[in-house]
Amino acid sequence: MLPALPYVTRGESLDSLRRKKVLPTIPVSPIGYDEAQRIFEFMDGDQVTRSDWVGGLSSYKWQSRRLFRLNVRSRFARRTISNIVAVLEGREEPDRWIMLGNHVDAWGKGAIDPVSGTAVQLEVATVVAKVFEKHPPRRSIVFCHWDAEEFGLIGSSEWIEQRLGVLQRRAVAYINVDHIAGGSSLDIKAVPLLYRTIVEASHR
Questions:
Q1: For the chain, what is the HEC assignment?
Q2: By its UniProt entry, which InterPro entries does this protein fall under (predicted)?
Q3: Which domains does the chain have, with CATH numbers?
């Protein structure tokens, strides 16, 4: 949650995060669907009726009078992570960046998240490089592959925190292609400033 390098500007400290109650006060560990389903089967409180909370679960209740014990076996170790950043320099405004990014690590096998997005990103990079081989784009295009996303957006956060001033001056837009599941519908989330651009692009 904080920059790894001491000279990087820190917007928060551990004390300020504790005062805001951002940090959990009890240990938290993600579990798989099979384990979660077994726990849900013993829940005996009120039935959850909101469909957007239930998801694909057949039974989901609020509370249980039962006690559960979860044994977690994990290792604490330091690991080196690596971001991959490639730049196709622009012709007229090289200091204005259009950024396309995705992470490379996966929770599990990662066929959808992130490999579907990674495949699209690599194909876009290949096509863009060929199209602009002789005539570079107006602005620079920055392709970013982030590491350690599943551990808390670590790779991208560290990279941004070390270059925050530069990004504030140069970054025009960032397009995230974390996972692309496919299908007949188009679902894109963006800041309001990009709404019109997205609609116009989808009509082409």
A1: CCCCCCCCCCCCCHHHHHHCCCCCCCCCCCCCHHHHHHHHCCCCCCECCCHHHHCCCCCCECCCCCCCCCCCCCCCCCCCCCCEEEEECCCCEEEEEEEEEEECCCCCCCCCCCHHHHHHHHHHHHHHHHHCCCCCCCEEEEEEEECCCCCCCHHHHHHHHHCHHHHHHHEEEEEECCCCCCCCCCCCCCCHHHHHHHHHHHCC
A2: PA_dom_sf (IPR046450), Peptidase_M28 (IPR007484), Peptidase_M28B (IPR039373)
A3: 33-63 (no CATH), 84-203 (3.40.630.10)
